[in-house]
Amino acid sequence: MTDIDSVKAVELAPCEPGRLTIDELRTLFLFEKLTDEQLTWIADHGCTQHVDAGQIVIQEGEPAEQFFVLLSGTIALSRRVGQDDVQTTRTEQRGVYMGATQAYIRDDGVPRKYMASMRALDDSDFFVLSAEDFGWLMREWFPMALHLLEGLALGMRSTQAAISERQRLVALGALSAGLMHELNNPAAAASRATGALRQRVAGMRHKLGMLAAGKVAPERLDALVELQEDVIERAAKAPTLTAMQASDREDELGDWMDEHNVTGGWDLAPVFAQGGLDLECLELIKTKVVEPELLDQAIHWIGYALETEQLMSDIEDATGRVSSLVTSAKQYSQLDRAAHQWIDVHTGLDSTLVMLSHKIGTGVKVVKDYDRDLPQIPAHPAELNQVWTNIIDNAVQAMHGAGTLTIKTYRKEDHLIVSIGDSGPGVPDELRKRVFEPFFTTKAVGEGTGLGLDISYRIVVNGHGGDIVLESKPGDTRFLVSLPLVEPSSR
Length: 491
Hints:
The protein is of the alpha+beta class. The protein contains 14 helices and 16 strands. It starts with 15 loop residues before the first strand and ends in a 7-residue tail after the last strand. InterPro entries: cNMP-bd_CS, cNMP-bd_dom, cNMP-bd_dom_sf, HATPase_C_sf, HATPase_dom, His_kinase_dom, RmlC-like_jellyroll, Sig_transdc_His_kin-like_C.
């Protein structure tokens, strides 16, 4: 949505008293059950106001002095998040109200301010009451309802604030624990490989000294060094062996080394087999060495060189994994990115899967069916990552750690669809329509707050102008998130 501050403030046309009759007021759903006497009082104290397209009607943070009821036109409400204005509501429904909606709450010393900004997207008309008059009629005409509304508003505010904060902390803790677990594995592998590498390099220096002490001719030592390079290059290009093939290769190499009196041959055989070397290579080494008494040292020297290369590859893979995890964490958090940008949804989906990999576990098979030709879309990536997190987390819990998680993206008309499905037991029909209600959860006490899907719904629908629906049957439950391919028109 356009930045509120970038639009020149325009003074609204003054209110025009007495423009609505009691019959006209009764057509508004908010007033339809009031008596003629009450409607007359409202008509006497209210006024109508015309606002041109593009004008700011109320500004977030300003004193809440007026209560507005939409008579015609289209309006949009927005909230400021960081440096951006996030559209939360867009409507043209006649009779909707906004502004000083909590003017009835008893004075607790806290100034009442507008909770959102409102802009007229096209020429609009409003019926307006002052906050003072709206608060008075609520307190005088509906005293019992007022007590209930006060309790509901204050109770919901404090409850949602406490639970939302707790949910964020729990989610952060779970993600942090998963990330630390994932980081620990490659870090530990790199540490182990480094320790082993130090030993192998020391052993290689020792074997090289033994070869030199054996009075090997310089040209033969040069040939042996060339052979070592050839062996390492061959190992880098070697095809991956199956477990059965590797076992057979180890037996062949071990028998050859045993026949040629190579010490510790059965320990060296797996290293040569993993490097993709075969009997032909061993025979070539034998030919290059010539002197039988030096064959043992030559085999061990080349074995150390080969294992050194393998350990360095392990370290490279481990540190690359750490770098990949850090990159995924940055993409997930979007801490170094603008709040609103054009994004590839697949990047956020992949980083979310990485962040949740510890929770997903090995029992869940992840199937990705991405349409890589989809264009970028305008979005708040950090918010969408929260949506993916909530839905994927629910899917994994529904499958109890075993099943198939399917993530599919495709285009449908002018929207991009993200389908996240699981093979769990499904959601019963009577519960399906309630899954997006705040505080509604089917989880056991203490396992869920009932806010995850409510937050996801508001992010997708109110924040991005999209939609999110649930389709479910046993073995196939899918959340379909629909996001517009272009910025919503501001008319």
